[in-house]
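Shapes recur. Our protein:

. . .
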Amino acid sequence: MKRSFSMMICMCFLVTLVLNTLGVSGNAEAASPNILLGKTYSSSVAANATYPDSGGELTDGVYAANLLADAGWQARFNSTSYSFTVDFSVSRTFQSFKANFFKYTGAGVETPTQVQFQYSNDNIAYTSACTLSQQGAGVDTTAVPYSCSAFSPVSARYVKMVVTSATSKWSFIDEWEVKRPAGSASAILSGSFLQPDLGDQWSNSQWTTEFQKMEEAGMDHLFLQWTANSKLNTTVYPSGLSGYTQNTTNDVVSKTLSMGNQFGMDIYLGLQLNEDWFVNYTNNATWLSNETTKAENLAQDLWTKYGSNASFKGWYLSFEVDNWNLPTSVEWDRMATFYDTVIDYIKTLSPNLPVIVSPFYNTSGGLTTTGWQTMWEYILARANIDVIALQDGIGAGHATTAQLASWFSATKTAIQNARPATALWDDAETFNLDFKPMDIKLLKDDLAAVSSYVSKYTSFSFNHYISPQQVNPLYFTTYKDYFSTGSVESVVPSTPAGLSGSAPNSMTVQLSWTASTDNTGVVGYKIYRNSELVYTSYSNTASYTDTQLNPSTSYTYSVKAFDAAGNESAASSTISVSTPAGTTYATNLSSGKSYTTTMAADASYPDTSGTELTNGTFGTATYVDAAWQGRNTASAYSFTIDLGSSKTIKEVYADFLQVKSVYVLLPQTVTFSVSSTGTSYTTIGTVNKPAVSSSDQVKKYRLTDLSSVSGRYVKVQVTPASSAWTFIDEIQVRN
């Protein structure tokens, strides 16, 4: 998921939805869509010429009236058995079935003696999903529905309805419905948000599989998060916009819509992404005005190219509004003007399609639900927003489950007071702070916490954090079980046994244990060092190597297993491992030396006097310490230190800060390299993000006991963990 962060806040993400006031279901428990709508079918027996099939009558969604003369009916006389078959072209998932038959005994029109719904993957061998005996006792001159469901969802390419009728009778039939599985849970996800970069990587079969898995879980919509980047002037489709180039291999817009057409899923197209939003917000009126024009031009281009797709069901405006960066009515007014102008233009293109926004709230820094409510009353009174898809913020660490009700309630009240026609949806985050899949048990609790305030649930993101094509398939299996039963399995894995460890060098401990077992399967292990959780392994491998430790130090370890539901085993027995002494390299070659950087520090956390990295003053574990310099970026950047002449190098390290509460995160990797000329560099080594607890702390990224390394220039390349802050202080080169 693409997330951007400001110093005090994570920009949580996104959401999907549809709109009940515009003809799309707004209830999470509403019946699943009929996947036969608009599909062609074949019939084993042609309809009578007096009551013919005028073309697609069974799947056109138009129900015949209780009149023999209604042209919606088609009829067969004395046909004791006939059938209809639909070929979906690919495997589809469904569970419930329905067909309407007419009964008018005075005119010799009788309901079937039996109707059987069948499915097949080869159009040869068919399996019965469910069978109904004659229906309609005690009624007459009316349509009689034949409805039944398979015991569990089935997946097949072909579906068939076999009708058995009485001799010398008329059999009148109109609509035939086949529907996706309907979840047993009261709060279930109905769709997802997809980033185009991920979709661009998929083969045709992977696209199909993704939509099949969404269908298995009862989903009916997907949001394509953005279609253009207005900062980089790129699009994810062959655009007609002047100055824009396509930066994806495939036409992701076309592919998404075609999948929606094929699977009967609603597709919502996001307009532009621009990372400068997280710098400017509404403070730069000229910039925001330019983005207004760009949004209108993009919407026009998309509608011209793709508006004829049946699956194109709405729009998403991707700039995320929050209560920290829009603190007063001055900012609210500018945002409302942007919304209202863009929405008015979109409505001239597609009057019946909803426009959705996805704000997020911050619970800290003195911000309150009352202020949040006032903000949205102000905006909604001035902007015709169809849906607010409120990010729950759990995965990003913005809120706890216990806080959700108060913030969603405030949003609901704002809507009722300012624009009651606006729908409120939940954007449930399905990831955790490690940007890994969220426990399904926690997801269930988050959905339940807001159920009194929202009309539908979507996710950021099924596709990225639940789909079996992206993460451990056990997350999909566990979510699907919750979808089907309304509960999350609660069996805990067995306790890891036989934990042992050794220290091969002064900075490393190697652990191993006997693998745990679980009724659904173990998805990973949690590593505890000195009673603190320092690493979560999303693998069932029963070993771990702990690096970047201190020499001559004793550490205690224990391990827990966990499953996709979030059930944890008891802790293993505890062991102690001591690292041996390391070599001390006394001379700091970089002390006071000059350096350059490929990216200037942020003005709020600058490199004071350009000497902070080599002045010997170490920052403390707080981000306001002036010794630190900070950068808010997802892009790699580097520093190059000039030692003045070629030196033998035995050790290099750099200090970084972690303060997760304000999204100061440790880098994903730090790579050290050397050069004699300053032009061609040789890599010494790369340090991956070490295992640490979540507490505020300073952590060294260190390479030591180097052999045959020398050079005048030392480069330190920093790769951030995500779009967040990295804070760096001292870089030391020693021998």
In short: Residues 1-31 have pLDDT under 50 and may be disordered. The chain has four domains: 4-20+190-424+440-456, 42-179, 497-578, 595-734. The domain at 4-20+190-424+440-456 is CATH 3.20.20.80 (TIM Barrel).
